[in-house]
Amino acid sequence: MGKPYTQPTAGITGHSTAFRTSPMRCTPLVAHETVGPDILISGFLQPIPDLTPIIPSVNETSAIDPTVTPDDARILFFYKAWDPYGAFSNFSPYPLHMTDENGVYLTWPSVEHYYQAHKFIGVNDPLARDCIEKIKSSKSPEEAAREGRKIQKQCPDLVRPDWETAKIDVMYKALKCKFSIYPHLNSLLLSTAGSVLVEASPYDLFWGGGREGEGLNYLGRLLMQLRSEFLGESLTSSESSSEHCNL
Ligand SMILES: Nc1nc(O)c(N)c(N[C@@H]2O[C@H](COP(=O)(O)O)[C@@H](O)[C@H]2O)n1
């Protein structure tokens, strides 16, 4: 699944520049060359996220989660693992027991370990496999996040090519597992019915709500989606929880 990368060749009258970010075996992030009056840019350009929606409006949230009604919705923020509702953070230390795509049973120390490692899963490169192991054995979720982000930045060609579209599904699977295998977390999530959940990360404008609500809050959205699904299930079945999850 590795991303093919061709080093651009300079035109007859041009010159080229490539930026290397690390002494590791990484391809350049971006290269540019001047060809006559033009500048040709090639390489891996970070996709620009869609920043249109902000924290979902109460009406929008009611569509995801019918337990939220326009009149009584309140916003429940969470961020650091030690805060009230910190168990909703991906950095809270709840190990996940999951089978992988080959049916192999694995334990991930936290959602963050699982999420960061999945940036490199499926990439046919021994270096990507080393990165996964390094992240999986990180001593804390913070260390896993640091490692995953560092490798993603320094070696973009080790990141699976579908990451930007796959990451929401990866996170959904991890969260579904976390809130399925820990009954007290499941109860905590259900106890928030009626509230809008927002990850109060001031910096993460994709997973978090941002400093002033400018973030997309995808973590909060997924938790609210799961809450709805669990509420629906609890009305229709009396299934007991399992201690591990199958993909
Ligand atoms: N820096 C930081 N500290 C925390 O305590 C957090 N909960 C987060 N947010 C999480 O970071 C992950 C996103 O990582 P990438 O930027 O995609 O590498 C995700 O789990 C957020 O919920 N950040």
From TrEMBL:
Source species, domain of life: Eukaryota
GO molecular function, one term: hydrolase activity, hydrolyzing N-glycosyl compounds
Gene Ontology biological-process annotations: carbohydrate derivative metabolic process
Catalysed transformations (reactions): 5-amino-6-(5-phospho-D-ribosylamino)uracil + H2O = 5,6-diaminouracil + D-ribose 5-phosphate; 2,5-diamino-6-hydroxy-4-(5-phosphoribosylamino)-pyrimidine + H2O = 2,5,6-triamino-4-hydroxypyrimidine + D-ribose 5-phosphate
Domain NADAR residue range list: 77-230
Pfam families registered for this protein in UniProt: NADAR (PF08719)
Keyword match Hydrolase: yes
Alphabetized UniProt keyword annotations: Glycosidase, Hydrolase
InterPro entries according to UniProt: NADAR (IPR012816), YbiA-like_sf (IPR037238)
Name of the featured protein: NADAR domain-containing protein
Organism: Nelumbo nucifera
